[in-house]
Design a protein that fits this description.
The protein is of the alpha+beta class. It has one domain: Jelly Rolls, CATH 2.60.120.10. It has 5 helices and 16 strands. Strands 2-10-6-13-4-3 form a 6-stranded antiparallel β-sheet. Strands 1, 7, 9, 11 and 12 form a 5-stranded mixed β-sheet that branches. Strands 5, 8, 14, 15 and 16 form a 5-stranded mixed β-sheet that branches. A hairpin with a 2-residue loop joins strand 14 and strand 15. The two termini are 12 Å apart.
């Protein structure tokens, strides 16, 4: 049984789609012409976290690759671009975020993304039932639209997950001043935590996702 079919059998109450399905069209698109190979090789030099997941906004080894220029030019219209890394261990929804820009994901291991749309947030709240699960195979390069809610990928094996993340420069860095927008958590990063995610709420995130805190089983 392949990974995709195994995920569907292990999560019978959750419909899991592929990013190659039409269901993905309103959330993002698969990008052709940008190779994951160089990023996969460079990531081998980065040790996995001992526990949990980690996010590094900018990795010089990624940004020096020729395909990094393609991302800057073709996706971000030559704007200064940072290319970082989200990797480690995670199986839960826990939260969701969005940006005022697209995000490029270069997938270095099979993984699952939990996605919804910003317009499904009502008065700062959203139900977890509004999210869809998408399987993304290793080596796939996708654009996640600015209107798509997303967060830390979910692993599909005991080896954890790895996902390169490209965004406009400065995204996800601390705010330089206080914002009146209660959902703006970092620069160009709006965030809602699942109400069960007490540690993130204690860091200042608004608890606004209700319902099951979705867990991907494998």
């Amino acid at each position: 049984m392949n990974t995709f079919d195994n995920l569907k059998s292990q999560n019978p109450s959750l419909e899991i789609y592929s990013v190659h399905d039409r269901a993905f069209e309103s959330y993002g698109r698969v990008i052709d012409g940008i190779s994951a190979d160089g990023f996969i090789s460079a990531a081998l030099e980065i040790p996995m976290p001992e526990d949990g997941s980690a996010y590094v906004p900018s990795v010089p080894a990624f940004e020096a690759l020729s395909d990094a220029e393609k991302i800057k030019d073709q996706i971000f219209g030559t704007l200064p671009t940072q290319i970082g890394y989200c990797y480690g261990k995670n199986s839960m929804m826990n939260a969701t975020e969005w940006h005022a820009s697209s995000e490029v994901n270069i997938v270095l291991s099979d993984l699952v993304l939990l996605l919804s749309h910003v317009w499904q947030i009502k008065n700062g709240e959203i139900g977890s039932s509004c999210f869809k699960a998408f399987f993304v195979p290793k080596g796939t390069v996708i654009e996640v639209f600015s209107t798509s809610l997303h967060f830390c990928p979910c692993e599909v094996s005991d080896e954890g997950f790895g996902c390169v993340v490209a965004l406009p420069e400065g995204t996800n860095f601390p705010l330089s001043s206080t914002s009146e927008d209660g959902l703006l958590f970092r620069r160009n990063k709006w965030l809602l935590a699942h109400v069960e995610n007490v540690p993130l709420i204690e860091k200042g995130a608004k608890g606004g996702i209700f319902g099951e805190n979705i867990k991907i089983k494998y």
